[in-house]
Every structure is written in C-alpha cells, then in structure tokens.
Amino acid sequence: MPLATGPAGGEVDMSDASTSTEIAVARLRETILRGELRPGDKLHQDQLAEMLGVSRTPLRTALTALTQSGLVVYESNRGFRVREFSYEEMVGAFEVRAELEAMACRKAAANMTTEVAERLAALVEEGDALLAPGELVADNLGSYRQMNVAFHDLVIRIAGNPWIRDFVERLHDVPMASDRIIMWRDYDVIRRSHDDHRRIARALARGQGDRAGAIMHEHITYALEHLLSHLELYPDDFLRVPAATVPAGRSRRGTNSRRKT
Fold first, then answer.
1. How far apart are CA 87 and CA 84, in angstroms?
2. Burial letters for 198-217: b for 16+ Cβ neighbours within 10 Å, e otherwise?
3. Could you read off the pLDDT of 17-31 as tens digits, one per residue?
4. Contact predicate 60/45, CB 8 Å
5. What is the chain's percent helix, strand, coil content, to nearest 5?
6. Which of 12, 34, 125, 173 has its CA 20 to 30 A from that of 27?
7. Could you report the per-residue pLDDT of 60-83, keeping only the tens digit for each?
8. DSSP 8-state secondary structure symbol assigned to residue 239
9. Rounded to an integer, what distance in angstroms lies between the CA atom of residue 118 and that of residue 114?
10. Three-state DSSP class for residue 84
11. More confident call, 175 vs 166
C-alpha cells in the first residue's frame, strides 16, 4: 500500500491518488480528521499549501471537493473553514457507523481467504507490539492510528459491498466519529478496544459473521461511550464540540482547546 509522509510525520495512503489534486484532497482530509485542523478553523490557502507540500491550484480544487463532501464549508467574503458538527450529529454518526461496520463483518465472513485472515492477524500483532510497553506512548500514536484504520478498512473492503464503504467513508468526515481518533490516555480502555480487534479477526477467520458483527457493533458503541465520558475529563484530547449543542451535564470547556498528542 503506497504511503506518503503527511503532516506531523504521519502517513497518508496514496494508493488512489494519481494526481496532485487527489494527493491534496487526501492530505488535507487526513490532516482534518487527525485533529491538526480543528472545526471552525479558517483555512488559509498559502499556509495550507506550504504545510501540505502542494501548490495552490490543486489545493483550491481540493478545498472545493471537501466542501462538496461536507468536511469543509465555504462562506462568501470569509473563505473556507473546517466544518463544525453538532453533538447530535456526532452521536448519530457513531450509531450509523456501528450498524454499517457490523454489517460489513457479517458480509466479510463469507468472503474470507487465508490471505485476508493472515493480514488481519498481522494487524492485531502489530497493535500488540505497539501496546507492549504497557501504555500507548505518544511516539507510537501515529502507528497505532494507522493500524486501526487499516484493520477497519480491510474488513469493509472484504465485505464487497461498495455502498457500505461509501457511507462509512462519509461518516468518517464527522471527525469525532472517525477511526483516526484514538483515545490513548487510558491504557486499559485501549487494550480492551484492541482485544476487540483480536476477537473480530478470529471470528472472521472462522466464518462467524454474526459473532464478528456483534463484537464490532459493541466495539464502536463502547468507543462512543468512552469518548463522551472523557470529553468531560480531557477536553483538550478531542476535537471540539460546539458548546451550544452539548447536552446538560457534558463539558463545555473544550470549545477553544487544542488536542495534545
């Protein structure tokens, strides 16, 4: 899988990017989903072009494309900015993602091969190695994120239903519901989450689609529950939620905060 170095030393999948515009779209989307550009941030084209290593022409085309997909908004006389999503939109995206990825597991079980099973197992082993120190250290966060994205993407691709992949990709454009978000402070939580990967991989290798789907649904639902509770404790770790839409009892401190990674 061809990769290119992205912002902050991360990597962006370039396997589908054959033109400078596609590269700009991929790099900018990844930068937003990883939280390096935050909801509401104004997108200054000169700064972005330098940061992403692209020229202004493909960058502007990329901004227009991401406006059409809903990740960026454009306002006359104000320019482009990262779209803000409400609390309700974020929760709804998680709920739909849980259903779709559970469906992907059920379908993937019927399409499993020895090669795919080995690839899933290898990704689980990669996660094990990253968590071996007894914590997810900050230097390993990017590698763990990449492993997590690869695991979920492989299951969806093996499902063989392009509609599932299309709609899940749209849901990832709600940044807090993206599989790029890793809640890395609590080792016990991330260890439990990674053990879900192990159980999903085993179930799929055995052709147990319903079991794999049930684990995947709980995996994503638990991620939502944990994210909501930690928004109260560590608002700087997550993308901001518009304060006006956060229900009573939820933290409103994260409105202008930045994530620490």
1. 10
2. bbbbbbbbeebbebbbbbbb
3. 447 788 888 888 888
4. yes
5. 65, 5, 30
6. 125
7. 889 998 998 888 999 888 899 988
8. -
9. 6
10. coil
11. 166
